[in-house]
TrEMBL record:
Domain of life: Bacteria
Example GO BP: cobalamin biosynthetic process
Name of the protein described by the UniProt record: Cobalamin biosynthesis protein CbiG
InterPro entries in UniProt: CbiG_hydrolase (IPR052553), CobE/GbiG_C (IPR002750), CobE/GbiG_C_sf (IPR036518)
Domain CobE/GbiG C-terminal: 6-131
Start and end residues of each stretch annotated as Disordered: 116-135
Length: 135
């Protein structure tokens, strides 16, 4: 059986679907993973109305989970960011969301792509992290 992965997503408000799609494709390629191996995507509740994230999950048939800042902040991650904390209330969105979606107590060593940043042609940023799902 092939490994299963979860994707954590962070992005600028109003990001284009193309930017998020390109970021995810690059992160999957870095992980040597295929979209069909992804069992869930996740982000912060602040993004539950972000059109590009909703569209990407629908396009791929991925369930999309949202976690609040407090849940995300409780997760140990390799690349916490004070800038992210300033805007969201948590030092990590994509890494923490990928780990939470992978299962309870998933260690940061499960991250196969830590914090892939991508700036799209729209000038907006998307950040993608990928974790190996706990069986």
């Amino acid at each position: 059986m092939s490994p299963a992965f979860t994707i954590g997503l962070g992005c600028d408000r109003g990001v284009l679907l193309e930017t998020v799609r390109d970021a995810v494709q690059a992160a999957l390629a870095a992980a040597g993973a295929q979209p069909q191996q992804v069992v869930a995507a996740a982000s912060i509740t602040l993004k539950k109305d972000e059109v590009a994230l909703l569209a990407l999950a629908e396009e791929n048939g991925w369930p999309l989970h949202f976690y609040d800042a407090e849940q995300l902040a409780a997760v140990d991650v390799p690349h916490p960011s004070e800038t992210v904390r300033k805007y969201t209330g948590t030092p990590s969105v994509s890494e923490a969301a990928a780990l939470l979606a992978a299962g309870p107590n998933t260690p940061m060593t499960a991250l196969v792509v830590e914090k892939h940043k991508h700036k799209g042609t729209d000038g907006r940023n998307a950040t993608v992290s990928i974790a190996r799902k706990t069986p």
